[in-house]
Amino acid sequence: MSINLDRLSKWTFENQIHSYNVRDTILYALGIGCGEGADDLPFVYEKKLTALPSMATVLGDPGFWLKDPCLEADWRKVVHGEQSVNFHAPLPAAGTVLAHNAVDDVINKGPEKGVYIYCSRMLFDHSSGSLLATLKSTLILRGNVGTSRSDHPTTRPRNLPDRQPDISCLNKTLPQAALIYRLSGDLNPLHIDPATATKAGFPRPILHGLCTFGIAVRVLLKACCENEPARLRSISARFTAPVFPGETIQTDIWHEGKQVHFRCLVKERGAVVLSPGTASVHA
């Protein structure tokens, strides 16, 4: 299926003003699996509520814009390829943010790899104007092919340390995890509708990639930052395979000074789903 790469690369977004409240912040935390113990209380209890850093990924999102018919995108086969976030300040537990979204680049990888869309978002506190987070993501149109292959250089992922992980954590996802997470904004039917999942080539609906990303952030926050969001300065990861709701995610962590390397895999299948991942942690 062809796509108009020129139109896609010139796509623009209106600035997003996104107000959220305490219930939204708690709902996001529940969507990524918080609530199993006392360590999660700061993120699910309105008393002295703290926003999880990864909630930045759902604030100011422009919506499922690739469904616009003029783009001719096969939206059923869109997957998240990469995500990174630089945190400039902790997110308020409730407030209003201003988001500037942009398409930075569109690369045709050829018939077997599809079209890669490189996007960015700058998230500001609406009242003060201070920058809260800078996000970059890669979306992959698996069902679309451009008219010719691009020779744009590909970024090589960093290798994980060649030793046993320093920490391994297990998180059992709920069978209804995607149903909860989608209430934070990502309503792509791929994550709830079996017919859509089948058309996309999956046996059943898959968990949102950014839900897996949020689970990894939660694990790192607890294991490396003593639950202090301000200590997590940046995080990036590559999505390598889907997670099905109900599966157990194992997060392996390696410490190298202020740098943390990690990967996530599904314990039941041994499938690596997020790797390589890196994070910068302040002491």
TrEMBL record:
CDD domains: HDE_HSD (cd03448). Residues 161-269 form the MaoC-like domain. Signal peptide: none annotated. SUPFAM superfamilies: Thioesterase/thiol ester dehydrase-isomerase. Residues 149-165 have a biased composition (Basic and acidic residues). Residues 19-143 form the Peroxisomal multifunctional enzyme type 2-like N-terminal domain. Residues 146-166 are annotated as: Disordered. This is 3-alpha,7-alpha, 12-alpha-trihydroxy-5-beta-cholest-24-enoyl-CoA hydratase. The lineage of its organism: Bacteria, Pseudomonadati, Pseudomonadota, Alphaproteobacteria, Hyphomicrobiales.
